[in-house]
Amino acid sequence: MSKSKDQNEESDVELDEYYQETIGETKRYISRLKDPQVAQVCKKWIERLNYAKNQRPLRNQYLAELYWRLKDGQIEGVFRRAPSKGPLVPYQKPLVTETDSCSESSASTQIARSCKHHWVRSKEPSRPESPPKSQEVVDETDEALSQDGRSELSPKAQFCLENTSKVQLHIHQQKIDHLTDTVRDLQAKNEYLNQQLLRRQGREDGNEVHQLRVTVKQKNGEISDLKSRVLQVQQMNKNIKDCHEEIIHRCRDAMDEQVQRFKFKLRQEEMKSEQLSQEVDKLTLKVEKLSQEKEEELRLKQENQEELQADRERAFESKYKHLESINGDLIRENEMKEKNILLLNTRLQELENKLQSKSEEEAKLQSLLNDQCSTMKDEFMKIRNEMEEANKQQNQVLIQKISSLKKCLLKLEKSKQKIILDYKQKIFEMEKNKEIEMKTLELHLQEQHNELSTSLSSEKQCELDSLVNMLEERYKGFVIKTEAMADSQRQKYLQKLTDLENQLCYLKSTIKTDGTYV
């Protein structure tokens, strides 16, 4: 049984190799087709044959026929339409004349011959050629049988010969059944026509009777031709069966010889298997010893693991107690930090009060500036009146007063610059102090936030986060307010300075270089 399985596997592998070689050539011819519909049908046939792995000989026969049709450039018959679902049907060539029927028998003999003497395939698939006469076919089969008697068959060739002969026998059997069915149909039609002829005798004219007789004669002639063809096919079937029995007998003899060889090899393998079984027994003993040693090691490791587990549990209990003590300390620290937060709130209120006082001081400074500006305006008016009166009196007095006024203007400019610098310095110091205070508050709040976030538990952490967020929002609002107030004060101071500069420019424009007023 194992020998036959190996032979079947080898034959399947070789049939698959032949199929792969042929399918490559076939695809190359399909790619050269100009008609897209024919190319699509051929691709469907290739896909269908790829799935027919259980029918390797029939699949190879279909592929070889498709290859030769593509090579000849004539796609006809079965390959003009898409393949049907289900298993492949044995391929049937059209039966036209006696030479065609004889060609199939010659094809089977040639396939058998090619399997016996040329098992190694070439790149192109073999194509059977039909001889011109039936006498040559008989001679070829006799020569093949004589060669079979002289030479022994290899198992691959025997398997291929069995498959091809079975396929050919199945094809011929189908053709015989088809012909017998047609003969029966014709006989039934002949009987029906005879009955109609008998019925119509005496009823119809002589011309109709004559026509019926002529048709009956034609049908009888066709029946006789078909009977002769059936006899020929039956004779061919007998010859093929005889040839097939002889081939099977020879195959059986060759198989018996190979079975004897395989038995001898099997005995040798049994001896080797006994030696291997002894070695396996030795190895099993070694494995048992190793397993015992490993079990002892595992037992020792388990004991060590249990001791380590007990030590870890003790350490865990001590750490748990330590954590409980730390938790109590954290609760106390939390209370202290809450008190600190209240102190910070009071401090923030004090800072707000300071800012209000500073804003009041800035308002006072602004009022002082306004008073000074008004006084300066009054003085300028007095000086102008005096200069007008002096101008009426004498030019020299005017020149002296103009020089004095210029000195006063220089003093005023210097005083203005000093005032500007003083205000800028004050504003810068105020902004710097505010920034320092804000940064210190931010750092203090951040430190408290970090300490609280690292020490407190999850519930108290949420409460502290909410408090810190509220303080941050209040702090941000306070910073925004202070920045807005500082910006507004800065804008006011700048506006006042620009007003003073405009007034000075106006006073300068009123005075001419020659000492006259405009």
UniProtKB/TrEMBL annotation:
Q: Does the keyword Coiled coil apply?
A: yes
- Region named Disordered: 114-152
Where is the DUF4485 domain positioned along the sequence? 15-91
Could you tell me which InterPro entries the record lists for this protein?
DUF4485 (IPR027831)
Using the record for this protein, list the coiled-coil segments as residue ranges, or answer none: 169-196, 259-393
**Lineage: superkingdom:** Eukaryota
| Keyword terms of this UniProt record | Coiled coil
Q: What is this protein called?
A: AKAP9_1 protein
Gene name linked to the record? AKAP9_1
